[in-house]
Give the backbone structure.
Amino acid sequence: MENPCLYAGTIMKRLIRFLPLALALTTSLPGTASAVTLVMDYSKDTSGFFAPASDARTSLEQAATDLSNVLANGQLGALSNNVITGTASGTNAIATWNLGFTNPSNGGAETLSNPDAVPGFAADEIRIYVGWRNLTGSVLGQGGPGSAGASLGGGGSPSNWIAAVNAMDTASDVMMNRGGGPIIGTLNGNLTLGATTATYSLEFGSFVGNLWFDSDTDNDSITDSSGTLNSFWNLDLGLPSGGQSDLYSVALHELMHAIGFGTSQSWTSLPADPNISGGHLSTGVTGLRITDNVSQEAVMTPTITVGTRKSLTTTDLQYLGAIGFDVIPEPGTTALLGLLGLGLLRRRSR
Ligand SMILES: [Zn+2]
């Protein structure tokens, strides 16, 4: 189930999709940074297209750095313990958390069963698993937040059960919401001990994400040669030429989906807003580029003109703030310049 995300151009139109959040209730960290750090994890990339010092890797890292630099430090807590216990008069309720993500090379489900173990999640650290896959049609890339699950149990006196579960729920939210940033999702349900049933609502924040880019741009079901990729994609940090899709721009867009923009419970809880359309800002919404104060269509609208680059705008930052991030510079002078026509949104195959 995917909500299509059009990244379209006036000449060529190309598609990006973001992944909806997958919640799983299964039966079954440190350092001081100057900002929220988006760690690109290449351990699941089997393509070789993110080789060290490659243009693609350099551009992705630059997009991650530019996004990091607008997310203030000190806002996300470390994951110091994935086993959360609530106690009431000797009765215990226990949640053992795991985190999940989609393998960026083969689409398989991956689970971090002990997410507080090495390397863990330090304060202000979000890890994004990146790679390349053969995507069909005009899809350029896909990204989204990871999932989370918890194994729940406990024991003691049924008369203290509800209090114990409530204590676990409260402690879990403190740890798993990280004290800031968006709420990615919530695990809801009931836990019964003897004849007593307690309800729980366990929230979790941004720890992991995943994204991948299209490595079959000519749609022949064969992974492209590096030469083919080089002509289709603008892989380096120089501005794209006409007809090229800009990896930096797509990376920036998908990284924002990976940390909850358009993809989190906090996003879907936002009030009705004409500047929002599904998981994106509405087509034509603009902002001021934070680098030079020039008006530009926001990164998080569904469309981009092929052959151009987008950089972060004040409007993108405003909505990062709306879903819970502490953003710098503080939005507030943002100019929402309204909607343009919808003609650009029309999809066209390449
Ligand atoms: Zn998108």
Q: What stands out?
A: The chain has one domain: 3-272. Residues 1-33, 331-350 have pLDDT under 50 and may be disordered. The first strand starts at residue 3 and ends at 7.
